[in-house]
Amino acid sequence: MSASLALLLAMQQVVVPLGGAKPAPKYPAPLATAGPAFARECEGKDGWDEPAPPVRVHGNTYYVGTCGITALLLTSRDGHVLIDTGTEAGAELVAANIRRLGFKLSDVKWIVHSHEHHDHVGGFARMRALTGGEVAASINAAAVLRSGQTGSGDPQFGTLPRMAPVPVARVLRDGDTLRLGGILLTAIETKGHTHGALSWRWVSCDGGVCRTMVYADSLSPVSSDSYRFSDHPNVVAAFRASFAKVAALECDIVLTPHPSASNMAARFDGGAAALFDPAGCKNYAASKAKALDERLAKEALAK
User: Is 44 left (phi over 0), alpha (psi -120 to 50) or beta?
Assistant: First the structure.
């Protein structure tokens, strides 16, 4: 066990009641066919608002998103953290999946994001109304969430719809942690796709098996038709820094905002063995670095 993993586990220990042993975490029994059901029901589908069954990924980490957009629920006795909500319509599907797992919406205490585009955070205002949970966001994403409008520096500016504004209770910076009960999330700034993008790392344990989980944000060079990444060296540099940061992460199970970006359906179908991949973050970062290189080469040819 690495020193960093040991530290994270030590910080997440459940308080031992006086006169008693440490209680074992109790999670809803995983649906026996949850992973295969996701693969089957979402085969050939990647729509943002196409319903998908929830999947227990590992320990207290659950997939509660749609076929095309990830939302993750991290649970604890003291409340839960939700990462991403999908669109405004998708938030209703996410809420239904949380209920389907047997959790109360009112126990969602924090709502956090990957990046500030409507397909991932468009449902924040609706989810906040449903749960009463508070929103935490990076400083750049906070401005977008509070206004409902993507900033002019976003590569996709002008192509994205407005979102319902939502208050932000806490602003996060690179390396900040969010703790709730046995959950300890570390925010990792991964700019490029957007200026406010965050990836997340935490540890989930199932019995004696603990895994370092990474929700690696979208690192795709997607833009409006008129935008040229080669005209924005600061954005390219941000991408490069994010690739290096994600590749270097301790990472047993990598998950991504778009399930297809990390082959999540097939990995859910294959079970725990397929999900566990210590090289997952490194390979994901490498694939996105290749995509950026290809985009820059295409722009050079179009001059």
Answer: left
8 Å CB contact between 160 and 115: no
At 119 the pLDDT is: 97
Global pTM?
A: 0.90
Joined together, the tokens standing for residue 138 give 């990076």
Structure tokens at 257: 């905002």
Q: What is the DSSP letter of 68?
A: S
Q: What φ, ψ does residue 225 adopt, rounded to 5°?
A: -65, -30
Whole-angstrom distance, CA of residue 164 vs CA of residue 114 = 17
pLDDT of residue 247: 98
Asked if 204 and 188 count as a contact pair (C-beta separation under 8 A), the reply is: no
Distance of CA 141 to the CA centre of its chain: 14
Give the span between the Cα atoms of 213 and 204, in whole angstroms: 7
In 132-177, alpha helices (H): 139-147
Element (H, E) at 129: helix 124-131
Q: Which candidate, 5, 6, 72, 59, places its Cα nearest to that of 217?
A: 72
Q: Which residues fall within 8 angstroms of residue 233, CB to CB, at 6 or more apart?
A: none
Residue 36 CB-density burial (10 A; 0-12 exposed, 13-18 middle, 19+ buried) = middle
Q: Where are the alpha helices (DSSP H) in 150-279?
A: 233-247, 264-270, 272-275
Cα Rg, the chain, nearest whole Å: 19
Confidence of residue 8 (pLDDT cuts 50, 70, 90): very low
pLDDT band (50, 70, 90) for residue 34: confident
